[in-house]
Amino acid sequence: MKSRVRVIAIITAVVVAAFAIVLAINVGRDPRADANRSRLLGRDAPAYDLPLLNGDRVSSEALAGKTIVINFWNSWCIPCRQEHQALVDWWSANKDDSAVTMLGIVREDTKSATQNYVDAEGVTWPIAMDPGSKAALAFGTRGQPETYVISPSGVVVASQYGPVTVANINEMVGAARRVG
């Protein structure tokens, strides 16, 4: 009987100690940090070749050598609309920088709804349609908005799931430029 009580006490102590260790490791950690990490970080960005809203095409090959901000979105997405002004502000400040570009990739939306939104909101950066969400699937997006920054060497250096701010974009682009 004493040995059984002793075994239960030891097991309880081990469980409590394990719980304390896990708690100590995770205290102060942002639970969104892991959720915001893309499986592509540090890897080559997926190749894409997409139709632009204006009728032209855009490809990863055509943008190679630049820092690329890719923003997955659609016209009916409320968080996408919330981040829109940050994208406008960032693009206005950076559109003349030949070393960087921004590409909006629209998924799960119609061309007409997208065109209406782009016209109404004065979007001036390139907007690509993603038929069948092939690019979104290749990037492993979890929804929209979702933003990826690709270094000039083609490596995914940063991602943000959810709305971005100008500061977020600047930080991600800075990381891409450091990687080269």
TrEMBL record:
One of its GO terms (biological process) is cytochrome complex assembly. Its main location: other. GO terms for cellular component: cell envelope. InterPro entries: AhpC/TSA (IPR000866), Thioredoxin-like_sf (IPR036249), Thioredoxin_domain (IPR013766), Thioredoxin_ResA/DsbE_sf (IPR050553). GO terms for molecular function: antioxidant activity; oxidoreductase activity. It is found in: Cell envelope. Pfam families: AhpC-TSA (PF00578). This is Unannotated protein.
